[in-house]
Amino acid sequence: MLDEVATDIMITQVSDSLYTQLIKTYGGNLPSSEPHSLDEIRKQAFERFKSAGFPTVKQEDWKYTNVQPLVNRQHYVLDAETLSSDDLSLDKAVIPGLDAYRVVMVDGRYNAKLSTAADIHGLSIMPIDQAFDRLCFAKYFAEYADKTDNPFVALNTALFTSGLFIEVGKNVQLQKPIHVIHVASAMKPLFAQVRNLYVISTFAEAEIIESFITDEGAAHNLNNTVSEVVVRESAKLQHYYLQVAGAQGNYLNHTEVYQEKHSLYNHYNCTFPGAAFVRNNINVRLGDSEVESHLYGVTLTAGNQLVDNHTIVDHREPHCESYEWYKNITQDTSTAVFNGKIFVRPDAQKTNAFQQNNNMLIGEKSAVYTKPQLEIFADDVKCSHGCTIGQFDNEALFYLRARGISEAQARVLLVHAFAFDVTSRFANATVREYVEHLVEQGLKAG
Amino acid sequence: MLSIRNLHASVEDKQILKGLDLEVKAGEVHAIMGPNGSGKSTLGNVLAGREAYEVTEGEVLLDGKDLLDLSPEDRAREGVFLAFQYPVEIPGVSNINFLKTALNEVRAYKGLPPMEAKEFLSRVKEKQKLVKFDAKLANRSLNEGFSGGEKKRNEIFQLAMLEPKLAILDETDSGLDIDALRIVAGGVNQLRSNDNAFIVITHYQRLLDYIVPDFVHVLYNGRIVRSGTKELALELEEKGYDWIKETVDAEGTV
Ligand SMILES: Nc1ncnc2c1ncn2[C@@H]1O[C@H](COP(=O)(O)OP(=O)(O)OP(=O)(O)O)[C@@H](O)[C@H]1O
Ligand SMILES: [Mg+2]
Question: ABC transporter domain: which residues (chain B) (predicted)?
Answer without folding.
Answer: 2-246
